[in-house]
UniProtKB/TrEMBL annotation:
Origin superkingdom: Bacteria
Site (Transition state stabilizer): N149
Lineage per the UniProt record: Bacteria, Pseudomonadati, Planctomycetota, Planctomycetia, Gemmatales
Cofactor note: Probably binds two magnesium or manganese ions per subunit.
Keyword list, A-Z: Hydrolase, Magnesium, Manganese, Metal-binding
Gene expressing this chain: xthA
Protein name according to UniProt: Exodeoxyribonuclease III
Annotated site (Important for catalytic activity): D218
Pfam families: Exo_endo_phos
Marked site positions, Interaction with DNA substrate: H248
Length: 258
């Protein structure tokens, strides 16, 4: 089973890119973030014509997440994170596909930091960690895939010193991510590419793509049951070079069938 995550940066504006990527790579599951579309504006028909069933949690502006699956409609098991009744952001969706649990997330950016947005980011990470702690021991494979807006270590950023003050790379953010991994999760892309500089995001400005001034902020975390089936992980880097594309590249894992 191939499971991918892709921050599409507006599902309708980037729909031709999304459909081209789906047709080219045919992931079994695709987790999408930053839909920037209210619930009724999700491109259901186009996704269905591409061969995918979908569940989604839409919202105007910068949020929105979806889970796409080729083999039948995903069974939704959760929408949003508990712990903050005032948080109406569409940032988390959970379902099962073919016996695999899938959590699709769009973690808050948190800038400027310090400040209220950074405080919200850290609280969100705490709430996410609480849910992850419930999922990690599942006897079934679970994959938590999405745009984490976390740069885990210096290897994951083109200019570590220049990003020290950014919410994506502040010590509090990295420590929260390490605590998450310590529950027993495997960062699949890093696990299979130890010591290698692998990026998943390149900003639109300052020639970042041309200079390979990138970040690794899109992650797929696997519980032990899923990690035991991990055979491959990678980034569809070339998609970032397409016309009118997202500033993220699709990132994926392959799990061995049992």
């Amino acid at each position: 089973m191939k499971i991918a995550t892709y921050n599409v940066n507006s599902v309708n504006a980037r729909l031709p890119v999304l459909l081209r990527w789906l047709a080219e790579t045919r992931p079994d599951v695709a987790c999408l973030q930053e839909l920037k579309a209210v619930q009724e504006k999700f491109p259901t028909e186009a996704i269905r014509e591409a061969g995918y069933h979908a569940i989604w949690h839409g919202q105007k502006a910068w949020n929105g997440v979806a889970i796409l699956a080729r083999a039948g409609e995903p069974a939704e098991t959760g929408r949003g994170l508990p712990g903050d009744p005032d948080d109406f952001h569409s940032r988390y969706l959970e379902g099962t596909v073919g016996g695999v649990g899938v959590g699709c997330l769009y973690l808050p950016n948190g800038n400027p930091a310090p400040g209220p947005k950074f405080d919200y980011k850290l609280r969100w990470m705490d709430r996410f960690a609480a849910r992850a702690a419930e999922l990690v021991a599942s006897p079934d494979p679970v994959v938590l895939a999405g745009d984490y807006n976390v740069i885990p270590e210096e290897l994951d950023v083109y200019d570590p010193a220049g990003w020290e003050a950014d919410a994506l790379f502040r010590p509090e953010t990295c420590e929260a991510y390490r605590r998450l991994l310590a529950q027993g999760w495997t960062d699949a892309l890093r696990h299979l590419n130890p010591g290698e500089r692998v990026f998943t995001f390149w900003d639109y400005t300052a020639g970042a793509w041309r200079r390979n001034a990138g970040l690794r902020i899109d992650h797929l975390l696997l519980n032990p049951a899923a990690a035991g089936r991990l055979v491959a992980a990678g980034v569809d880097r070339h998609v970032r070079g397409w016309e009118k594309t997202s500033d993220h590249a699709p990132t994926w894992v392959e799990l061995r069938d049992v």
